[in-house]
Specification:
This protein is mainly α. It has two domains: 64 residues, no CATH class; 40 residues, no CATH class. It contains four helices and two strands. Strands 1-2 form a two-stranded antiparallel ribbon. The model has no long low-confidence stretch (mean pLDDT 88).
């Protein structure tokens, strides 16, 4: 349970990531982590309780779709959208760099 009224800003470091993944990070990954600001604050007790109630409400909501094989078409459609967006971004990035993906137009 979080401490009441504590709003100390905390920082995640590469060591925190190593502990979470239980694996030694490469120098490249450590460098990437250190490029970003991973700051966070603990929730107040009131915030914690509100969030916990919200999570429980969602989990118990009968209107929230259940996972399962019956949702495979939705899953495939969603990933197809992700691929389309990624491909568009990739091609736009190459075009902005004056490059191509090597395919014939």
């Amino acid at each position: 349970m979080p401490s009441p009224n504590v709003r100390e800003i905390k920082h995640l470091t590469d060591k925190d990531f190593e502990n979470a993944f239980q694996e030694k990070l490469s120098p490249y990954v450590i460098d990437q982590i250190n490029k970003y600001c991973f700051e966070y604050e603990d929730f107040s007790s009131a915030e914690y309780e509100k969030l916990l109630i919200k999570i429980i409400d969602v989990l118990l909501d009968p209107e929230v779709p259940q996972s399962g094989t019956h949702r495979l078409p939705q899953w495939e459609d969603g990933w197809a959208e992700n691929l389309q967006a990624f491909t568009k971004l990739y091609l736009n990035t190459l075009a902005n760099m004056g490059l191509s993906d090597g395919r014939e137009n």
